[in-house]
Amino acid sequence: MEKLEIKGRAKINLSLDVLKRREDGYHEVKMIMQQIDLYDEISLKIIKNGIILNSNCEYIPNHEGNIAYKAAQLMIHHFGIKQGIEIYIHKNIPVAAGLAGGSTDAAAVMIGMNELFNLKATKKELMDLGVNLGADVPFCILGGAALAEGIGEKLTSIQGFQEWIVLCKPNISVSTASVYGNLNVEQIIDHPKTEVMIEALKNKDIKILSENLCNVLEPVTESMHPIIKDIKKKMLEYQALGSIMSGSGPTVFGIYKDYNKAKSAYENLSKIYNQVYIVKTYNE
After folding, report:
1. Is 35 exposed, middle or buried (0-12, 13-18, 19+ CB in 10 A)?
2. Residue in 11, 30, 169, 234 annotated catalytic
3. CB atoms inside a 10 Å sphere around CB 214
4. Torsions phi, psi of 224, nearest 5?
5. pTM
6. CA dist., res. 254 & res. 234, Å (int)
7. What is the rounded CA–CA span in Å between residue 52 and residue 44?
8. pLDDT in tens, 179-233
9. Considering 17, 40, 105, 136, which one is annotated as catalytic?
10. Helices 259-270 and 227-237, interaxial angle, to 10°?
């Protein structure tokens, strides 16, 4: 096999808690992540040598500045691969959106190269390697739903859920570094009830889950971009069971049990914003 096509799925944060800032500059987090069926399409092809990366998206670099390119470099170096790889990324996930779009491309490259070159690395080995690229990469390799701790690399698979998700990304970019830089951990008032949420997932109680969505980064990003509060308000007006910002933003999502309500929300939001999506959650 010399060619392979693979999907790199986005994630949403059902909860995001920051416990402390570590001495190395990273933040200790505790969060629940869920994959969704919004995905980039990654094509891989074995070539004689080197790395070639192209994309349909002009906003992403085609060199070492791209995390998917770095993933290929890491795989070649770590496993002593003698050939090269050509990567084509068809972007569907919005860029810099808090949905792990870059991390999931890197994860897809690692999973795909493992298969293409018959490396026989386990998922755990790829996850341990992937953390060198970014904190979200191990989750994107694992998939489904998980509790993430540490800097996001300590993962415990948990029960996911199956519902409609409407996502809306306003036409702004948010720097994760600036959001964390403006976060004062001591001043966080509302922390997520993580255990309550995990129990709700276990019991398939979407109402309790939706009522407890919580992201401690949301007030920070909202203070810089009030539009996030507006989108959340609209999601709830359009009868979402719950709505929250994902990651460091700026994407806001709502959970819908009823497809018609989700479709109506999608159509109404699409009249105002360019990047609106309606998808299902994804569990392997």
Report:
1. buried
2. 11
3. 21
4. -85, -30
5. 0.95
6. 10
7. 10
8. 988 898 888 989 999 999 999 999 999 999 999 999 999 999 999 999 999 999 9
9. 136
10. 140
